[in-house]
Amino acid sequence: METITIKDIAKALNLSTSTVSRALRGSYEINAETKKLVLEYAEKLNYRPNPIALSLKENRSKSIGVIVPEIDNPFFSQAINGIESIAYNRGYHVVIFQSHESYEREVVNVEHLVSRRVDGVLISLSGQTKDVSHLKELNDKGLPIVFFDRVSDDINTHKVIADNYDGAFKATEHLILSGRKRIAHIAASSYLSITKERINGYLAALAQYNIPVDENLIKYCSYGLQEMETVISRLFSENRPPDAIFTASDRLALGCLTTLKNKNVRIPEDVSLIGFTNLKVASMLSPSLSTVFQPALEMGQSSAELLLDLIEGKSKMPVTYKTVKLQTELMLRDSSLLQH
Fold first, then answer.
1. Which homologous superfamily is 164-294+329-336 in?
2. What are the helix (H) ranges across the chain?
């Protein structure tokens, strides 16, 4: 199949090659009508920029680095799909590393990406990361970095997050309004921004409905089933065990569901259960899992757009960094719906 070039597009549309080139890069110098004409024609012919030619011309690698805690976490695999769709259409390759929730591996990942001369980095922090100096140093030297999902307030850059506070508030409120009074919250790593935001939403809902906070009902847990069994055993050894559990992720909810079933705890009759993320399997479980939907694909797309705009200097200088907050939605299913 013959490769389409910028010259071919320019000739067909009776435009100069420089106009077509700038239109494809989304330059402010080209009017919206011309840009639309060029982009639609390029899409029709399945034009793809030549990354080698571009990198030689612009002294860029035309690649971006992505670091996520775990690729086999469906949330992150969806986010990566979003990142790749944007990067591909703008002529960039994506190099993916996973930290496996380890701070040390995250630092090594960053070093590898820098050695590969990526043009920028998208990162969701590991569960162990408290210190982000390895990223701050590079950002201060001019490497564009954008955070998504798990972010840090210590670096001034773009961030794309879900409205974790609101999602957690609505999940907890639903449990309260369905008559639950002893609502446990199982959280992920205490270092993570998402953990703090979701705990704050949970606490705010308890406060609004005058339910006293019981610190014994707030537990931190990794994704291991053994640790979840320990956490659930502790919760149910209380004089007044929980009648509902809100977990900070669907992966925690899956471990919780398995453990409760093994203990012959009925869901939702004895304990209501709500997760956070809306994994595809949530609706297929028995009982189907109530959860807070978090827009992973959109998060990936939005963070990639922001990073590529930084790389290509489209953001007006000096850059005004923004935090994009995407809406969450409560998806109610059998695990929290009591039959009255």
1. Response regulator (3.40.50.2300)
2. 6-13, 17-24, 32-44, 51-58, 74-89, 103-115, 133-140, 164-177, 193-208, 225-236, 250-262, 296-311
